[in-house]
Design a protein that fits this description.
This protein is α/β, with parallel strands linked by helices. It is built from six helices and five strands. 35% of the residues lie in helices and 17% in strands. Strands 1-2-3 form a three-stranded parallel beta sheet, covered by helices on one side. The chain has a two-stranded parallel ribbon with strand order 4-5. The longest helix has 14 residues.
Length: 187
């Protein structure tokens, strides 16, 4: 059990923000007064190679901009009942851990989950960078960005049940399917 703290951090690419991400953010927020949400691969026009997990740098796997992800996550969290003044966003260059201290408060622990080797690798990277890491849970993924993007591309409308209601609405408004189609064509 984690005692309540003043601030904490979650992080991810959130491409797109899905229901497991929502659960992750809400569970982390239960342990802190203020939650920083770190967006990795924040500059999608200059994608950096992620350590250990190279697919994360492909443009087709990073269709949403920092701002779009921020808007989607913010709308989803507010829709889930969190107040806008209890969380905010930061770039989170996990692919360049020596720069993390430039964006994230070192005294704030980083909440994470474990559902694959990538998560276990990140814990080591974050601890080496000087952060305290708190694991919220360890379980298999129910939702996965790659599968959701594939469903969108294939026209499988069940993708809308994999993301928060507000996320689905915004993704449709910005033409997410068309953007994915363009990125897949231009590889």
């Amino acid at each position: 059990m984690v005692s309540r703290i003043s601030q904490g951090i979650v992080h991810g690419r959130f491409q797109p923000f899905h229901n497991d991400h929502l659960k992750y953010c809400i569970d982390a927020k239960k342990h802190c007064d203020f939650l920083w949400i770190g967006l990795t691969q924040f500059d999608i026009n200059s994608l950096a190679q992620s350590p250990k997990d190279k697919h994360r740098q492909a443009p087709k796997n990073n269709p949403l901009t920092y701002f779009e992800r921020l808007c989607i996550i913010q709308a989803s969290l507010v829709d889930a009942g969190l107040s806008k003044d209890t969380f905010s966003f930061i770039p989170f260059p996990i692919e360049n851990p020596s720069n993390l201290h430039c964006f994230a408060p070192l005294d704030a622990p980083i909440f994470t989950t474990i559902n694959d080797q990538w998560n276990e690798f990140k814990i080591k990277v974050l601890e080496k960078a000087g952060f305290k890491v708190i694991v919220l849970w360890k379980e298999s993924k129910k939702f996965e960005g790659a599968k959701i993007r594939k469903m969108v591309l294939e026209g499988d409308i069940r993708w809308k049940t994999c993301v928060p209601r507000r996320a689905a609405k915004i993704l449709e408004e910005i033409g997410f399917k068309e953007r994915l189609e363009t990125l897949v064509r231009t590889k």
